[in-house]
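fyi for ur records
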Amino acid sequence: MKLQLLCLGLMLLCTQGEGDEVVRRNFDAGKILGNWYTVEEASSKRETIEKGGSMRVFVESIEPMEDSALSFTYWTNGECKQFSVISNKVADGVYVAEYDGYNVFRIVETDYTNYVMFQLWNFKAEGNFQLLQLYAREPDVSGEIKRRFEHFCHKNGIGEGNIIDMTTVDRCLQARGEK
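which gave:
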């Protein structure tokens, strides 16, 4: 019996801290505040995330606001100009924002300390599209998290050819004071 308790205790100790809990609802916006990096983007209209595309933006930070809104600070590709977008909360993990059309997006999942995934629908006269984004606290994430994101893309009808690994392009890191 003592040996079983010892083994159980060792198992619990060894697994403690292994990976953070994945959250898919009841999000705490206060836990996603701070600096982030754009790691991967996927779109049903690839041209929106290619060089010069309106949605080829690189996140720097997410800041919760007092009225439950979120403020996103981004850099544009190419010119590396900084801008912010305020999004208003409409439900748990669901927000709306005006940027190159009307956008409704949701937090898909996060572990707060490593990554967050977003699903966005953009509506405008020229046509609608879906955008999926993977942000991370560090400039890159593990292969496991990338595979999880890519599986989510496929599940939502976005194929491999419409997923771009943003860690291989100029993400304006020098403009934000990094190498």
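Strands lie at 34-35, 37-43, 57-64, 70-76, 82-91, 94-98, 102-110, 115-123, 129-136, 163-165. thats all i got for now
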